[in-house]
C-alpha cells in the first residue's frame, strides 16, 4: 500500500450520531485513511471510572444508565440499527455482569471496565461507515495492542505490536476501512489493559508506527495545536507547523490536545502528525514534523494543574555523596515519576503529577513518603500548577528570564526550572493564580508577534 493514513477521532468527535457522521465525511473524502482509531463517546470513560469507584451496585447502575443512554441514542439514529444491536447488547450485558459481580475492583477489573467505552463507540462507528456505503470492519485492538500488565498505564510492547499487526490487521486494510479502539490493549495472557487517560492519541501513533503509515491524523474539537489552551485565553493562536520536540514538550507539560507519549512512535518512524477539528475539517490544522522552517524562541505555554511539591530535607545531605541516589531510588522503586527537580545545600524539591496523564493512576505516593521520612524531613504541598514556556534555544537566549519575571512581578513563584532543556522553562504557582499567569504571560510573549 503506497500511502496509508491512520485517523483518530476523539471523544467529542464521536459524541453522538451527528458527530460520527461528520467524521465519516472526513474518512470518505480521503481514500488513504484505512485505519480509524476511535475514543469512547464523550463522557463515557468518566462514567466507567465512576463505576470502578463505587462499591454500591445501585450507584454503579446509575452510571451504567448514562452510558446506555449515550449508546442507544446513536444506535437509534442508524438506518439499520438491528445490524449493530446484537453486538451492542452483548457488550452492554458483559458490562452489566461486571457491575453486578465485582466487589471492590482490582487493577485488572478497572481496566476491563474502562475498555467498554471504546468497544461500544467502535461498533457504532463502523456501522455508521457501512451505512454510508463503505466496506467497514470493527477490529478488536486487544488482538494486536500488546502491553505489559501495568494496569492503568500499560507499557506498549512495540515489537510485538508490529508483528501482531502484520499478521492480523494489515491484511484487512487492502479491502476495508478498519475501525478499532484507542486507549485499550491486552497483556500477554489476554487481560485487558489501558494506556492511561487520553491514551487514544498514543494508540493511533502506535498503530501508525506498526503499519508504517505516512501520516497520523488526530481529529479533535480544536482546529489544531494552539499557543496555549484556547480555553485559557481568546488570544491563543493556532500553530500551523511545529517540530516533534516542541509538540512533545507541550504534551508532556499539559497540553491535553495530545497524550504525552503520542509523539514517541511518530518520532521513531518520522511519521508526520496532523491535528485538526472534526467539526471544521476545512479550517486547516497543525502539522507536527521533524524539521520545520520556523524555530521561534517562544512557541507555546502549557499548564498542568494540581501538582504536588515534595521537599526532602536532611542535614546529612551536606557534602554527602549518595543522598540523591537514595531519594530517587525510593521513588523509582515505588514507580513514582518525578517531573521537576531543584536542589539546595541540604534539601531537594521535586514535583509529581499525581493522578495526571504522566503518572499511573493506581500508584499511591504515601508508602514512598514514609520510607523517605525514615531518614529525612519531608514536606508536601498541594494545589500547585506547573506552567511551562515551550520554545527553542531557551537555555541560551538573552532576555528570557527577564520576560518571565516582568510578568510574575506580583506572583509567588514557588519553584523554577531552567537550563536543563533548550525547549522549556517551567515554574510552579498556586492553582488559583495559574489561569491569570498564563493569560498575562501569553499576552507578553505572543501579542507583539
Ligand atoms: P479529544 O477528546 O479529541 O482527545 P481532548 O479533550 O483530549 O480531545 O483534547 C482537546 C482539548 O485540549 C481542547 O478542547 C483544548 O481545550 C485542550 N488543549 C489544551 N492545550 C491546548 C493547546 N495548546 N492547543 C489546543 N488545545 C489544547
Ligand atoms: N476514552 C479515554 C479517555 O477518556 C481515552 C481517550 O479518549 O483518549 O481517557
Ligand atoms: Mg484526548
UniProtKB/TrEMBL annotation:
Q: Which gene encodes it?
A: lysC
Q: In which pathway does it act?
A: Amino-acid biosynthesis; L-lysine biosynthesis via DAP pathway; (S)-tetrahydrodipicolinate from L-aspartate: step 1/4; Amino-acid biosynthesis; L-methionine biosynthesis via de novo pathway; L-homoserine from L-aspartate: step 1/3; Amino-acid biosynthesis; L-threonine biosynthesis; L-threonine from L-aspartate: step 1/5
User: NCBIfam families in the record, alphabetically?
Assistant: asp_kinases, PRK09084.1
User: Which classification does the entry list for the species?
Assistant: Bacteria, Pseudomonadati, Pseudomonadota, Gammaproteobacteria, Chromatiales
Q: Which reaction does it catalyse?
A: L-aspartate + ATP = 4-phospho-L-aspartate + ADP
Instruction: Look up and give the organism this protein is from.
Output: Rheinheimera aquimaris
Keyword set, alphabetical order: Amino-acid biosynthesis, ATP-binding, Kinase, Nucleotide-binding, Transferase
Matching SUPFAM superfamilies, A to Z?
Answer: ACT-like, Carbamate kinase-like
| Sequence ranges assigned to domain Aspartokinase ACT in this UniProt record | 387-444
The name this protein goes by in its record: Aspartokinase
Query: What EC number(s) has UniProt assigned to this enzyme?
Result: 2.7.2.4
Q: Where does the record place the Aspartate/glutamate/uridylate kinase domain?
A: 3-276
State the similarity comment.
Belongs to the aspartokinase family.
The record's annotation in InterPro entries points to: AceGlu_kinase-like_sf, ACT-like_dom_sf, ACT_Aspartokinase, Asp/Glu/Uridylate_kinase, Asp_kin_monofn, Asp_kinase, AsparK_Bifunc_asparK/hSer_DH, Aspartate_kinase_CS
Amino acid at each position: 500500500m503506497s500511502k496509508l493514513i491512520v485517523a483518530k477521532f476523539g471523544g467529542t468527535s464521536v459524541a453522538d450520531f451527528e458527530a460520527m457522521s461528520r467524521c465519516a465525511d472526513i474518512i470518505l473524502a480521503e481514500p488513504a485513511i484505512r485505519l480509524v482509531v476511535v475514543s469512547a463517546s464523550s463522557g463515557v470513560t468518566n462514567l466507567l471510572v465512576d463505576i470502578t469507584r463505587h462499591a454500591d451496585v445501585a450507584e454503579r447502575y446509575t452510571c451504567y444508565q448514562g452510558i446506555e443512554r449515550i449508546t442507544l441514542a446513536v444506535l437509534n439514529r442508524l438506518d439499520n440499527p438491528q445490524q449493530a444491536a446484537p453486538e451492542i447488547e452483548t457488550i452492554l450485558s458483559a458490562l452489566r455482569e461486571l457491575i453486578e459481580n465485582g466487589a471492590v475492583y482490582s487493577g485488572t477489573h478497572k481496566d476491563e471496565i474502562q475498555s467498554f467505552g471504546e468497544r461500544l463507540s467502535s461498533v457504532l462507528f463502523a456501522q455508521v461507515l457501512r451505512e454510508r456505503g463503505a466496506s467497514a470492519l470493527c477490529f478488536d485492538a486487544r488482538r494486536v495492542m500488546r502491553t505489559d500488565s501495568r494496569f492503568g498505564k500499560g507499557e506498549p510492547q512495540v515489537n510485538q505490536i508490529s508483528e501482531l499487526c502484520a499478521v492480523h490487521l494489515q491484511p484487512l486494510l487492502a479491502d476495508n476501512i478498519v475501525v478499532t479502539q484507542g486507549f485499550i490493549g491486552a497483556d500477554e495472557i489476554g487481560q485487558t489493559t489501558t494506556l492511561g487517560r487520553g491514551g487514544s492519541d498514543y494508540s493511533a501513533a502506535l498503530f501508525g508506527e506498526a503499519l508504517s503509515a505516512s501520516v497520523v491524523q488526530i481529529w479533535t474539537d480544536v482546529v489544531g495545536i494552539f499557543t496555549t489552551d484556547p480555553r485559557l485565553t481568546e488570544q491563543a493562536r493556532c500553530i500551523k507547523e511545529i517540530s516533534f520536540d516542541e509538540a512533545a514538550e507541550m504534551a508532556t507539560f499539559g497540553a491535553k490536545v495530545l497524550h504525552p507519549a503520542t509523539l514517541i512512535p511518530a518520532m521513531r518512524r518520522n511519521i508526520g502528525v496532523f491535528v485538526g477539528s472534526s467539526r471544521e475539517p476545512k479550517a486547516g490544522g497543525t502539522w507536527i514534523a521533524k524539521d520545520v522552517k520556523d524555530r521561534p524562541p517562544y512557541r507555546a505555554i502549557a499548564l498542568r494543574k494540581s501538582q504536588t511539591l515534595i521537599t526532602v530535607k536532611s542535614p546529612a545531605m551536606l557534602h554527602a555523596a549518595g543522598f540523591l541516589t537514595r531519594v530517587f531510588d525510593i521513588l523509582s522503586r515505588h514507580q513514582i515519576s518525578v517531573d521537576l527537580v531543584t536542589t539546595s545545600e541540604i534539601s531537594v524539591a521535586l514535583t509529581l503529577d499525581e493522578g495526571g496523564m504522566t503518572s499511573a493512576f493506581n500508584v499511591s505516593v504515601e508508602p514512598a513518603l514514609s520510607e523517605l521520612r525514615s531518614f529525612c524531613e519531608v514536606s508536601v504541598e498541594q494545589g500547585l500548577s506547573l506552567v511551562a514556556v515551550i520554545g527553542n534555544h531557551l537555555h541560551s537566549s538573552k532576555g528570557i528570564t527577564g520576560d518571565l519575571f516582568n510578568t510574575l512581578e506580583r506572583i509567588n513563584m514557588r519553584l523554577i526550572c531552567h537550563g536543563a532543556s533548550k525547549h522549556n522553562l517551567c515554574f510552579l504557582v498556586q492553582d488559583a493564580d495559574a489561569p491569570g499567569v498564563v493569560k498575562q504571560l501569553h499576552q507578553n510573549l505572543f501579542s507583539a508577534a
